Write a sequence for this structure.
């Protein structure tokens, strides 16, 4: 067990050697007016709330008659859950005081559309299921969710990435805080329609996962009917390596964060397997696994180790748990800046609710904690021998039993290597324990709603309106002369339909038109120059400019007039634009260039400088290329 | 059914376990449970072939553990009539079905063992809309038996829809109970993690085992939050919302008490105290030909005529305002009175007393033989009239029974805080609901 490997040093072959497999679950909010199972508006999010309610969650039996592991874990944590209610965006449905209304048919249409785009097999009839979430993120304790299609695929290079299923479900609450036994949620996001796309674990390197996430994002955006912006799309990434387990990292907000998370998780698993082998070689198994717990509250009276001194001041207790034969294990690095002790600490934090960190200390730590004499006393009272390690934990008496139990459980689980669990993405590409991975036991049918048939008529209607697949559109744009970068962005831009319409026969150079739509327009928008931007006016402006033979570079100037504060009629704005005839351009620009005092800089810089000046002086009169040509001639000695 | 199959259909291949289909759904689809846990429906006419690989039948069972016995703890009897205090899924109908044995209850609500020694008896397994005189009688008799056997309290599991009807009739059929009789149910069935069932059951069981309130009561959520339960007197309680957890409200008065996690907070002093004797009066005589007539403008007298012609013995009118109906009904009312039918007036406003002297209409109606029933709730008056007619058919005797309060169904005075339904939007109300988790 040496240093952890760094992502930049590894190739696809290295990841294949450890057997990395990764899959994605992408959650994407749909752009509907109302929520999925009630008639609340989907926006706006707000910090303001008008009331709060308090609830608890209890595990229930699943349809197949078993308790779900996650459910039991959440029950152990005994959380008070507070929901903040904003009256604009939440009704009694979200509060779980009213049964669901009929499923939003607009959302169903969009979900069917994406199912078709993914090439999934559509079911004939959707059945609403309840997926249990006992963390409180949904007041009912379950998410209403349904499967529309299974077994689709998307192209990735020369391969295909399989899609397991596409589901339609309601979004959950936003967490506000989670401290001790109190967790608070905001309910405005709750109930927003969401599609969940699940891929097979067919990605083989961290970068492949990000690539596929991007393709899926483009695909759903190509419908033009999904929400964008922070939190509108969230990725769950699952990772496993050979001899490992499927571990899910939840709620990764940005695709660019994915590769490092996948890399670190892969090597966390590799390390856990090495720890398992090490323990086996020490002869420790489930039969010989032994611990000894003692109350060391009295022993540590007067300690100068700050966290424990503070805890004792508040009348809390301290326990020591000796792990027989575990010497050194807790300080093995599992992730950057993180050791195996973090796995234990996480459990204590999440399940026993001892969330003021540090919440444990152990005898293999390098950091300053207890004094040497205190460690000796701790070891003596809990029977820690030469080959053992001892973990000290402190907290309220009501939580200490749970904490000790969880320490023992997690330590013993080290004998099993990797555990199937859900982890939370943390900054810097590492992850922390969130909960035990839920299984199919948490699914059961929703008895409040009847099944809904997906009729052939519905499919036919939606199929006839399917957008061109983004990767096909992208190829077409490349063929039409767009750069790869512009083709990629235009293929998923909200302006792609407009681009197709106006680029046909406008005589505009396509790359320039794409630049205008993708970049110039955005920058104008950001600078609040076009607060009245509307698609029809934009289109009329472009068409009129094309008709007059203007170049795309004139468009920003025109749009500022037609979509800005003045809202000038597009045709009028174009009429008012005085175009210099191209054959007069050399003379007019030459005259100007000759009047300038030229700075003494190298040729390339000079050219750029002069092009800039021409763009300023003759805005929208010519393409960048044409200005370059003129400046190039001028600098080359042609007086123009 | 329960076959593990692979289905080849025109929409593609699907793998999973075939589930029973709800009886109320169409018969053109089959339901498949995939290994992700999701169910999907496949149209039968799209299926080309089905290959069976095996079977996997579900076993629904609430983990059953023997309910521990502690000689130091009081004994409580839980009588089941239906409802979803504890339940599991029924594939046939897609609905939840109750689970009930002490072992099953202990398996799903282990906290009960800290409260009492629990015994259960399933009297009925009906939805609450199917409760009626037969079940009321049976329940009252069972309560009598348990009290005489020495129970410290009785809990009655009941569907919520007609819980207040049953609470009212039990208040008349079971009188002078020495122990608490607590009705309980749930608004969110216990197959849901957010269910109110466990807390309601815990509150009700604690009330039965340890409280001093020897009355027929309903014990359900106070606010929609998981904070405290309320004990409502059986004759003044009503279900007031089709789906809220806090649906049960005391009408025209204040509740008896709050049930908090570790104590009872009485809100009034006039409750009957727990006694150690075993004397209880059980009187289950009941005349079934009684009806409620909910008056509406332009009501045609033929409705009332139909009741008269069908030999109804008693009619409760839920009148408008202080207790009114329109003139066209007068001849029919006269005919009913002449035929010896007992007619009582209540108010559909629910809050407030009948007062038939204020307007001429009221006086006219009284002259026709209609008797004002003070502030008895219409449903309470309905069950009480059935019970009174079980005792006697004499007009004066019945009137005496009807107008003499037995269990708080008529009160002398309405306190100023007996009519409180706060209205949203008003600043002080908004401030209140934002400060307290209600």
């Amino acid at each position: 067990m040496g240093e952890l490997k760094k992502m930049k040093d590894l190739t696809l072959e290295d990841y294949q050697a450890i057997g990395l497999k990764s899959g994605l679950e992408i959650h994407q909010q749909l752009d509907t007016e109302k929520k999925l199972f009630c008639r609340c508006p989907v926006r706006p999010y707000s910090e303001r709330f008008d009331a709060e309610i308090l609830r608890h969650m209890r595990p229930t039996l699943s349809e197949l008659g078993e308790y779900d592991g996650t459910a039991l874990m959440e029950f152990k944590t005994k959380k008070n859950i507070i929901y903040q209610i904003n009256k604009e965006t939440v009704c009694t449905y979200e509060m779980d005081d009213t049964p669901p209304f009929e499923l939003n048919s607009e959302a169903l249409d969009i979900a069917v559309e994406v199912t078709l785009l993914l090439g999934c097999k559509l079911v004939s009839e959707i059945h609403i299921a309840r997926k249990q979430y006992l963390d409180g993120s949904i007041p009912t304790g379950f998410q209403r969710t349904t499967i529309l299609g299974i077994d689709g695929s998307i192209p990735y290079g020369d391969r295909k990435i399989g899609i397991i299923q596409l589901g339609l479900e309601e979004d959950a609450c936003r967490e506000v805080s989670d401290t001790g036994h109190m967790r608070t949620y905001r309910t405005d996001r709750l109930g927003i329609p969401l599609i969940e796309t699940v891929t097979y674990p067919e990605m083989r390197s961290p970068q492949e996962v990000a690539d596929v996430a991007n393709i899926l994002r483009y695909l759903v955006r190509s419908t033009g009917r999904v929400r964008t912006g922070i939190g509108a799309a969230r990725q769950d990434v699952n990772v496993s390596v050979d001899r490992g387990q499927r571990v899910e990292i939840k709620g990764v907000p940005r695709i660019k964060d994915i590769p490092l998370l996948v890399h670190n998780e892969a090597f966390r698993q590799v390390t856990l397997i090495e720890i398992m082998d090490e323990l086996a070689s020490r002869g420790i198994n489930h039969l010989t696994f032994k611990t000894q717990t003692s109350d060391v509250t009295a022993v540590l009276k007067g300690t100068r180790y700050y966290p424990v001194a503070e805890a004792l001041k508040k009348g809390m207790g301290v326990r020591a748990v000796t792990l027989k034969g575990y010497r050194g294990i807790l300080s093995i690095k599992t992730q950057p800046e993180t050791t195996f002790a973090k796995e234990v600490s996480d459990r204590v934090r999440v399940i026993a609710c001892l969330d003021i960190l540090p919440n444990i200390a152990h005898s293999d730590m390098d950091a300053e904690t207890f004094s040497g004499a205190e460690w000796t006393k701790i070891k003596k009272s809990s029977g820690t021998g030469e080959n053992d390690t001892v973990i000290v934990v402190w907290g309220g008496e009501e939580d200490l039993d749970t904490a000790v139990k969880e320490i023992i459980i997690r330590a013993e689980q080290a004998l099993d290597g990797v555990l199937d669990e859900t982890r939370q993405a943390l900054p810097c590409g590492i992850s922390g324990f969130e909960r035990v991975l839920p299984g199919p036991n948490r699914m059961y049918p929703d008895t409040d709603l009847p099944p809904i048939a997906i009729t052939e008529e519905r499919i036919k209607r939606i199929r006839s309106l399917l957008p061109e697949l983004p990767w096909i559109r992208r190829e077409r744009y490349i063929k039409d002369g767009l750069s790869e970068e512009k083709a990629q962005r235009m293929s998923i831009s909200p302006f792609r339909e407009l681009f197709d319409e106006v680029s046909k026969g406008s005589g505009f150079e396509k790359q320039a038109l794409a630049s205008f739509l993708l970049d110039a327009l955005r920058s104008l928008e950001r600078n609040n120059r076009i607060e009245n931007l509307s698609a029809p006016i934009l289109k009329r402006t472009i068409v009129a400019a094309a008709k007059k033979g203007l170049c795309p570079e004139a468009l920003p100037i025109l749009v500022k007039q037609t979509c800005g504060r003045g809202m000038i009629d597009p045709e009028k704005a174009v009429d008012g634009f005085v175009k210099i005839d191209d054959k007069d351009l050399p003379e007019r620009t030459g005259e100007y260039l000759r009047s300038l005092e030229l700075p003494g800089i190298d040729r390339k810089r000079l050219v750029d400088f002069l092009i800039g000046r021409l763009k300023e002086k003759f805005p929208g009169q010519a393409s960048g290329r044409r200005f370059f040509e003129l400046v190039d001639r001028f600098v080359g000695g042609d007086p123009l | 059914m329960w076959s593990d199959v692979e289905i080849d259909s025109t929409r593609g291949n699907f793998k999973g376990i075939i589930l029973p289909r709800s009886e109320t759904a169409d018969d053109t689809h089959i339901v498949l449970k995939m290994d992700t846990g999701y169910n999907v429906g496949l149209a039968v006419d799209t299926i080309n072939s089905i290959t069976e690989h095996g079977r996997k039948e579900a076993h629904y069972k609430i983990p059953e553990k023997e309910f521990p016995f502690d000689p130091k703890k009081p004994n409580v009897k839980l009588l089941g009539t239906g409802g979803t205090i504890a339940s599991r899924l029924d594939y046939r109908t897609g609905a939840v079905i109750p689970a009930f044995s002490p072992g099953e209850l202990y398996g799903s609500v282990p906290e009960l063992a800290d409260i009492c020694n629990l015994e259960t008896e399933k009297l009925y397994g009906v939805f609450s809309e199917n409760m009626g005189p037969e079940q009321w009688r049976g329940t009252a008799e069972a309560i009598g038996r348990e009290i005489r056997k020495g129970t410290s309290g009785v809990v009655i599991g009941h569907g919520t829809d007609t819980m207040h009807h049953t609470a009212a009739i039990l208040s008349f059929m079971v009188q002078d109970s020495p122990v608490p009789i607590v009705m309980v149910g749930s608004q969110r069935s216990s197959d849901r993690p957010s269910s109110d069932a466990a807390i309601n059951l815990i509150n009700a069981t604690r009330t039965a085992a340890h409280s001093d309130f020897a009355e027929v009561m309903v014990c359900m959520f106070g606010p929609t939050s998981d904070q405290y339960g309320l004990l409502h007197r059986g004759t003044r309680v009503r279900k007031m919302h089709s789906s809220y957890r806090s649906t049960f409200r005391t009408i025209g008065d204040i509740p008896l008490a709050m049930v908090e996690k570790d104590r009872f907070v009485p809100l009034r002093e006039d409750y009957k105290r727990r006694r150690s004797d075993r004397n209880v009066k059980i009187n289950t005589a009941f005349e079934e030909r009684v009806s409620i007539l909910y008056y509406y403008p332009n009501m045609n007298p033929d409705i009332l005529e139909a009741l008269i012609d069908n030999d109804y013995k008693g009619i409760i009118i839920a009148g408008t305002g202080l207790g009114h109906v329109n003139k066209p009904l007068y001849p029919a009312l006269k005919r009913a009175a002449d035929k010896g039918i007992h007619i009582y007036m209540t108010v559909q406003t629910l809050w407030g007393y009948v007062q038939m002297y204020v307007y001429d209409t009221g006086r006219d109606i009284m002259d026709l033989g209609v008797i004002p029933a003070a502030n008895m709730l219409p449903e309470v008056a309905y069950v009480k009239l059935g019970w009174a007619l079980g005792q006697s058919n004499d007009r004066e005797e019945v009137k005496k029974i009807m107008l003499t309060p037995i269990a708080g169904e008529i009160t002398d005075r309405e306190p100023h805080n007996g009519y409180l339904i706060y209205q949203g939007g008003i600043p002080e109300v908004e401030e209140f609901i934002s400060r307290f988790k209600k």
